[in-house]
């Protein structure tokens, strides 16, 4: 079930649709360069009956994974990909001479989407360990009582259960589907299984359920302001995350530097 893709110049413009964002190639991943309000406008348009939207958040780790996986890069071409974290901002400065207009990470931008929407949204949660999505949904009901939250499943369903889950999703068709499988499984699953029959917007949101449910502590405000939240996560879970950050961050910077050397004048700067 693949989304039909168009180049920005080929995509049919719906009446009143927001303009398509410009995109910056970060080591093979096309990341949208847009403000928070511009991103909200595209998502609101999808909620209001515009084109079905797949949403991803790109950090250095996703770039590293995609660099080794051509099939993932092809899938990501059908997503609105928003910039997440200081790594892609550094890459944008090196390649395009300026950072992205906004840091639109899924942990902070998902609540922004919910707070900005005045009309009632039907939001469905999928992923996490058993029980985590239910606790995350309870927190969301408290924080955003104007919306309706329900849980489709934890993230450990088997292939024999998947057909029933997709049928329920198509029957209920929420406005927003939040998928928390982690990179790259969540993006692969959305690309392969979700289309306009299932929801208006499908977003891969990583560890958001764990934060909402209190499974994982969010970094203190100082770390977030300095945009070094990754160091706090590494300190909390060194055995699980050392390869992603200690090995992955230098590998990401090398990829970006290689791109800069081979494409000294990138298109769309």
Automatic annotation (TrEMBL):
Keywords of this entry: Glycosyltransferase, Transferase
InterPro entries per the UniProt record, alphabetical: WecG_TagA_CpsF
CDD domains assigned: Glyco_transf_WecG_TagA
Superkingdom, natural source: Bacteria
Molecular function as annotated in GO: hexosyltransferase activity
Chain residue ranges for the region called Disordered: 1-22
PANTHER family listed in its UniProt record: PTHR34136, UDP-N-ACETYL-D-MANNOSAMINURONIC ACID TRANSFERASE (PTHR34136:SF1)
Name assigned to this protein: Polymer biosynthesis protein, WecB/TagA/CpsF family
């Amino acid at each position: 079930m693949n989304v039909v893709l168009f180049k920005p110049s080929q995509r049919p413009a719906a009446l009143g649709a927001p303009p398509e964002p410009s995109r910056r190639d970060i080591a093979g991943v096309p990341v949208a360069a847009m403000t928070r309000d511009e991103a909200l406008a595209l998502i609101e348009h999808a909620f209001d009956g515009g084109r079905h939207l797949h949403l991803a958040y790109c950090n250095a780790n996703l770039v590293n994974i995609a660099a080794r996986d051509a099939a993932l890069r092809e899938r990501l071409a059908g997503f609105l990909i928003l910039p997440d974290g200081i790594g892609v901002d550094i890459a944008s400065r090196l390649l395009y001479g300026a950072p992205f207009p906004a840091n639109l990470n899924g942990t902070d931008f998902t609540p922004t989407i919910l707070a900005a929407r005045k009309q009632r949204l039907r939001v469905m949660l999928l992923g996490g360990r058993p029980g985590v999505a239910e606790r995350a949904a309870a927190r969301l009901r408290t924080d955003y009582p104007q919306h309706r939250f329900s849980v489709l499943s934890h993230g450990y369903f088997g292939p024999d259960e998947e057909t029933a889950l997709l049928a329920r999703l198509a029957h209920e068709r929420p406005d927003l589907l939040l998928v928390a499988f982690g990179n790259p499984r969540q993006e692969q699953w959305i690309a392969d299984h979700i289309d306009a029959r299932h929801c208006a917007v499908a977003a891969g949101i990583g560890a958001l359920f764990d934060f909402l449910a209190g499974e994982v502590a969010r970094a203190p405000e100082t770390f977030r302001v300095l945009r070094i939240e990754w160091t706090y996560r590494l300190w909390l879970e060194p055995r699980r995350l050392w390869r992603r950050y200690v090995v992955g961050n230098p590998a990401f910077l090398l990829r970006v530097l290689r791109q800069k050397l081979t494409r000294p004048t990138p298109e769309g700067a």
